[in-house]
């Protein structure tokens, strides 16, 4: 292993510029890459950590920030993980971390893709969807977007205040929260797991059938949500999924 | 570049270290990844077609395909998302036996694997023959579940696992190396885990 990446290396050092706790289990880290970094909403980066003996661990993390809005990774702590506990317990502002990216050419949304768009996220699966929501907001576009966000409890709703603030603008962005282990807090919200009826009602919130649907979360969540969308009449070919493996 | 404060790696024991390609970690579970919803393909609707370009060479239904000689392969598999899983046991029909049943030699140097959901992935033909790859029908002795690509998936275990197309329904021989679904979206044309060929910019 060389001490520094070669000039051709796809890896680059990025400096942590800010850290903010989002929920008890999720913390956001902002990075300043050393080279130009232009991403699309929905893309991810690979992160690589290197121990003094040369051992390396790499994981993929979705980008939460909109294009042009810096590089924010919202990282969920997995207790049996080897990379996320490092971020939560060790990483500090000023540290340099190796990044590769932006990566991914499928689970992305650009303004030119149009809409309406239905976003369905479970837990930290909301992160790439948040980049799309922010991209819509920064672009000042009228594309109708509905986000159905499933979390266990109110305090685990990542980006909660920001999302509710965007919902309150009533400008074509519609937020639906569903809490699986607590009663709903807002009149329009649910308190159960995602099902076909909930997806059908989410579709009805859009002015017409969604042109594209994006589903992100654990494999179990994505399987259930994608099946629910199909059950609500959304064509399989319009549904893009991103699964967090396990 | 050493990362400040990162020490406790999960360096695997030295007897298994040699089986883990660079940048991979050992996974005990079997994670599921796919670009869209899981298609539920009924075996009565299932078929497998061998094609040269647009021209069909031979087509099998489920019963005909299951009547072909079946082989077992137990292999380590490597996903581009960085997990490696040891000793995954598969049973199915070797590509060699599919070609033999069709009575052909591989007509071109490149192949696209095609799937029921519209997915495709390119593999050089030489990486599919001479005992290297199969269309798998069983995993751990049982029918492959839909989320893992059942009823049948391609198994090309020496390449990153996105090349092992789920819900496979055909192989198309092509004159050129034509990129498939992920290869058109930034992933490597070949995908050798030992050379860490993850993305199109990798050598």
TrEMBL record, chain B:
Cited InterPro entries: OxRdtase_Mopterin-bd_dom (IPR000572), OxRdtase_Mopterin-bd_sf (IPR036374)
Region (Disordered): 1-22
Domain Oxidoreductase molybdopterin-binding: 36-182
Name the record gives this protein: Oxidoreductase molybdopterin binding protein
Species annotation: Mesorhizobium plurifarium
Lineage of source species: Bacteria, Pseudomonadati, Pseudomonadota, Alphaproteobacteria, Hyphomicrobiales
